[in-house]
């Protein structure tokens, strides 16, 4: 029973975190890309387009992968990088209260990077399917 609760917790964490990041940050940037080009901070001096492109990648594509549970640990890394840059470089003057959403997302995606997606994920399903097919093929030989 404990394993089921843990996997349900990881599913809730994946869907909740991915949904929040996508809705609050990702979709507004993607849907208003041209407008956002004039607003985006460029702390690494890469240019507005590459900076915004990376932000959209980290805040749209990565949360979708995480919600599905596909390449979850890998998909957390761009998000973690983006959050650290935002909190430590772009907004170092923010108090803990002002940056609490970013810090909470950092904890959430850091946890998923450490744990992986859990049993209720596309990754786990494909691993189970592959193992079942391998087991079946061995039984035939």
TrEMBL record:
Instruction: Fetch the InterPro entries from UniProt.
Output: DoxX (IPR032808), DoxX-like_oxidoreductase (IPR051907)
Q: What is the lineage of its organism?
A: Bacteria, Pseudomonadati, Pseudomonadota, Gammaproteobacteria, Pseudomonadales
Does the UniProt entry include the keyword Membrane? yes
According to its UniProt entry, this protein's organism is: Pseudomonas benzopyrenica
**What domain of life does the UniProt record list for this protein's source?**
Bacteria
Q: What is the designated name of this protein?
A: DoxX family protein
Q: What is its main location?
A: membrane
Q: Which PANTHER family match?
A: INNER MEMBRANE PROTEIN YPHA-RELATED, OXIDOREDUCTASE CATD-RELATED
**Spans through the membrane:** 47-68, 75-94, 100-120
- So what family is this one in? Belongs to the DoxX family.
Q: Where in the cell is it found?
A: Cell membrane
Would I find Membrane among this entry's keywords?
yes
Q: How does it sit in the membrane?
A: Multi-pass membrane protein
Assigned keywords, A-Z: Cell membrane, Membrane, Transmembrane, Transmembrane helix
